[in-house]
Specification:
With 200 residues, this protein is mainly α. Helices cover 84% and strands 2% of the residues. The radius of gyration is 64 Å and the shape is rod-shaped.
Amino acid sequence: MWVVFGGKGPRRPGRGALTLLAALFVGSAIARLAGGAGEAIAREIAAPSAAAAEEEGGTAQDLSRDEIAALLAAFSDREAALTERERALEDRLHALRLAERAVEAQLADLVAAEDRLKATLAVADGAAEADVARLTSVFESMKPKDAARVFEEMDPDFAAGFVARMRPDAAAALLSGLSPASAYTISAILAGRHANVPKN
């Protein structure tokens, strides 16, 4: 059956209704997809992702606990090593202090010994000087010939030391009693003692 609308020619009946029904079905499907079905699909898609994320999160959390335990163990070992090193340094410092005290005591003993040695040398030098002065006086008081015989037997350097201390008149009398060779040697030694003294 053909229906004529206006003068444009025949149209098939119900074609617009089919188009309208198809549009309604498509709209309903879209609405369902956008509504509950879309949420269901979204849940289906999201569920594995959430499970994977939860599993990965649990692994990461487990790894973090393991890492924290390792860090704590490392810190504990480090603290023990530092404590041991500090104890060793304290022991070394204590040993150094003991050694320092021992060195200070030894230095004090050495200073005291040096002072005693200086005093002893001063006494010895004073005694030696007194002995030499006394012996020089003895040689001066001897007869020149008798003193000359003694000086002939002395080492020339030793004899020159006594002659240098004697009074000039006693030294002249002594030298005149010596042999010419001995008198010359002693005189040369006496003259040479001050030969290298700076003049200026």
